[in-house]
Automatic annotation (TrEMBL), chain A:
Keywords: Cytoplasm, Nucleus, Proteasome. GO terms for biological process: proteolysis involved in protein catabolic process. This is Proteasome subunit beta. Component of the 20S core complex of the 26S proteasome. The 26S proteasome is composed of a core protease (CP), known as the 20S proteasome, capped at one or both ends by the 19S regulatory particle (RP/PA700). The 20S proteasome core is composed of 28 subunits that are arranged in four stacked rings, resulting in a barrel-shaped structure. The two end rings are each formed by seven alpha subunits, and the two central rings are each formed by seven beta subunits. The catalytic chamber with the active sites is on the inside of the barrel. Belongs to the peptidase T1B family. It comes from Brassica carinata (Ethiopian mustard). It holds the Pfam family Proteasome.
UniProtKB/TrEMBL annotation, chain B:
This is proteasome endopeptidase complex. One of its GO terms (molecular function) is threonine-type endopeptidase activity. It comes from Brassica carinata. It is found in: Nucleus. One of its GO terms (biological process) is proteolysis involved in protein catabolic process. Gene3D superfamilies: Glutamine Phosphoribosylpyrophosphate, subunit 1, domain 1.
Length: 256, 312
């Protein structure tokens, strides 16, 4: 299983050894990323958890990294594939630096590169199991885009991956507007992350907010959000309605 | 859907109340079934985000043979009294019934009448939700209250519904949000197709449930007044309508308080027909009416109303 017979892609599907090296399921996964454009650039929020199936295995994974001088890359999905993508981008940025021509890769270029990589891998039935969020600022222009594991790529004012698609997007669609200040942007992201914390089982209460502006990248220290659990109904859910939760006592009552 | 049932057992064993919003991918349809998509949706959560992304378009958009979905939301409204006691329940629903990718009914009614003080929103297969809520209404909820002419209790309806649904082992695809006010106070429950129930301050079901739940989680607080509550529920339903493909059209609201209920049909209509010709329609050339003959297909019979008017 460890040696590969060099064959062209046409036989890839038929060859068992190559088959066993295709990504079929993700193992260690990161949950959602939420990102928005704001007045000075792009803000990206992610939690620091890496789940191994239904276990919260790693609680200190940084899922947002700076790429070159102008971009920020956040990833949800398989962590090992994210690390592979970082290696590819490292090589890309290195080659770009070696030209030493005063030019540097901007977010649009990095986004395009990632789209090609993801789409090509998907065509070979060996995807990089990630949804990537690419944000950046170059020459005063903010850029925010997303690439999925099958190569779906687009640009928008606000993006969310994973569960964020369902829980954060409605909030962002309602409350995002152009030229948000830094504080408002962070508040909006925290609102989304709090809902995700309540409702996504693979989310943890340890998040980082990263920002990228013309000046550069800043990644915040990890911190937690305040949560509220003191609803009256949670204190006494069966007040006046004993047995409404079914099992305790309920089953026995049916015998009579 | 097995995910829901298992989760429910675990929760009760641990003595912890856990809400399974993930489990239900509602399908409000004419003759559709929900089974396939619900299972599909349960797995992604376990396997990880990537798998979820592949299956999501199927699971949430309702795969072939499955009806579409409805965003049902309900919230417990607490009026700000001196003792901060909650006062009533507000139920809300969208009005789209789907058959696969097609909206079969643009303006259906998803808030079903069970008793004067109990209403039930139904997500899932339309036939199942209507039959299940109608059955309860006819057989026991009303009958149970007859002898004493007292208001029926919400937990009566709850137990009837869960016993029925459990005995069908999830094959009756009705995911319900049951709300009402009885002698013991206001109650809000969710009932899942397999028969598990939850009692909550706010709840959502259906494919639009995540969109609606994100609004609730961000904006719900205790001590809402009636108007604030209606506004919040309407906002949550709108979030479902605009962010979920299986929900759409208008917002229905039902406010139940002690001894009083208001069924606000089409409370909001955020999707009006955009281009309506002001001239109306007319035939190109003047159509001459030669003869008019009206044949009634059934005899009209006058019925004098006795007692309370039948609703649905």
């Amino acid at each position: 299983m460890t040696f590969t017979i060099p064959i062209d892609n046409g036989d890839a599907l038929k060859n068992a050894e190559t088959d066993s090296q295709r990504t079929l399921y993700p193992y260690v996964t990161g949950t959602s990323i939420v990102a928005i454009k704001y007045k000075e650039g792009v803000l990206m929020a992610s939690d620091m958890g890496g789940s191994y199936g239904s276990t919260l295995r790693y609680k200190n994974i940084e899922r947002v990294k700076a790429i070159g001088k102008h971009s920020l890359l956040g990833a949800s999905g398989e962590i090992s594939d994210f690390q592979e993508i970082l290696r590819y981008l490292d090589e890309l940025v290195l080659n770009d630096n070696m030209w030493d021509d005063g030019n540097s890769l901007g977010p649009k270029e990095v986004h395009n590169y990632l789209t090609r990589v993801m789409y090509n891998r998907r065509n070979k039935f060996n995807p990089l199991w990630n949804t990537l969020v690419l944000g950046g600022v170059k020459n005063g222009q903010s850029y925010l885009g997303m690439v999925s594991m099958i190569g779906v790529s687009f640009e928008d004012n606000h993006v969310a991956t994973g569960f964020g698609n369902h829980l954060a997007r409605p909030i962002l669609r309602d409350e995002w507007h152009a030229d948000l200040s830094f504080e408002d942007g962070v508040k909006l992201l925290e609102k989304c992350m709090r809902v995700l914390l309540y409702r996504d089982r693979s989310a943890i209460n340890k998040l980082q907010i990263s920002k990228i502006t013309e000046e550069g990248v800043t990644v915040s220290q990890p911190y937690s959000l305040k949560t509220f659990w003191e609803f009256q109904a949670f204190h006494n859910p069966t007040a006046g309605a004993q047995g409404s939760c079914g099992f305790p006592g309920g089953y026995l009552n049916e015998i009579f | 859907m097995s995910g829901v049932g298992d989760g429910g057992d675990e929760a009760e064993a641990l003595g912890v109340e856990v809400v399974f919003f993930l489990a239900v991918v509602g399908a409000e349809a004419v003759g559709g079934e929900v089974g396939a998509d619900a299972v599909g949706f349960g797995d992604p959560a376990a396997a990880g985000e990537g798998v979820g992304e592949l299956l999501l378009p199927l699971a949430l958009g309702a795969p072939a043979g499955v009806g579409g979905s409805a965003a049902k939301t309900a919230v417990m409204a607490n009026t700000a009294t001196a003792r901060d006691r909650s006062d009533g329940v507000i139920l809300g629903a969208d009005t789209r019934a789907t058959e696969g990718p097609i909206a079969a009914d643009k303006n259906c009614e998803k808030i079903h009448y069970m008793a004067p003080n109990i209403y039930c929103c139904g997500a899932g297969t339309a036939a199942d939700t209507e039959a299940v809520t109608g059955m309860s209404f006819l057989t026991s909820v009303c009958v149970a209250s007859l002898p004493d002419w007292r208001d029926s209790r919400v937990i009566t309806a709850l137990t009837l519904l869960k016993k029925h649904l459990f005995s069908y082992q999830g094959h009756v695809s009705a995911a319900l949000v049951l709300g009402g006010v009885d002698i013991t106070g206001p109650h809000l429950h969710t009932i899942y197709p397999h028969g598990s129930t939850d009692t909550l301050p706010f709840a959502t079901m259906g494919s639009g449930s995540l969109a609606a739940m994100s609004v609730f989680e961000a904006k719900y607080k205790e001590g809402l007044t009636r108007d604030e509550g209606i506004k919040l529920v309407a906002e949550a339903i709108c979030s479902g309508i605009f962010n979920d493909l299986g929900s759409g059209s208008n917002v229905d609201i039902c406010v139940i308080t002690k001894g009083n209920k208001e069924y606000l049909r089409n409370y909001m209509e955020p999707n009006p027909r955009t281009y309506v010709s002001s001239k109306g329609y007319s035939f190109t050339k003047k159509t001459e009416v030669l003869r008019t003959k009206i044949t009634p297909l059934m005899e009209r019979v006058e019925i004098t109303e006795v007692g309370e008017a039948m609703e649905e």
